[in-house]
Structure formats: C-alpha cells, structure tokens
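Researcher: Next entry in the queue.
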Amino acid sequence: MTLRTIISWILRIVAAVILVQTLYFKFTGHPESVELFTKLGVEPWGRIGTGIIELITGILLLVPATAFIGAFLGIGLMVGAIVSHLTVIGIESKGDEGQL
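Model: Structure for this entry, 100 residues:
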C-alpha cells in the first residue's frame, strides 16, 4: 500500500465516521436535531431524509468503487448544512457560542 492509499483510507474513514455518528441524533428525534430542522421548516422528513443521505454517503465513501460518488454527496451535504446555518438556523445553538 502506498502512502497516498493509506491517507485516502484514513480520510474516507474519518469522514464516514463523522457522518454516521450524527445519525443517532437524526433517527431518534433528538430535541436539538428536531429544533434545527423545525427552524428550516422540514421537520420530520428533512431530518430523516438527511439522515438517510448521510448513511448512504458514509457507506459509499468506504467502498472504493463508489468513494467518488460518496465524496460528491458529502460535499453537497456540507454545503447545504453551511448555507442553512448561515442563512436560516444561525451559528449558535442553545447558547453554545457556536461550539456545536
């Protein structure tokens, strides 16, 4: 294995873990997740749909033949999240000073 391959795997695994670890909050209806998607006006289908897309993206990132598709889905998810936070939701959540 080359250094490039090892780094690629590490980055893909890290991205997939981050995506998958947020699924608990979306699929269980965690109050903060519900609040954020309510502010966007897409609760509950937006929350559940986003969770499904994040799950698919995490899986695609870990399959070498589909990692490229997963990367583009991940970019789309992150652009959507950033835009929604900057335009509708806001940066701060429940007085956390933007920590979340």
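Model: The helical segments are 3-21, 23-27, 31-40, 45-62, 67-89.
Researcher: Noted, moving on.
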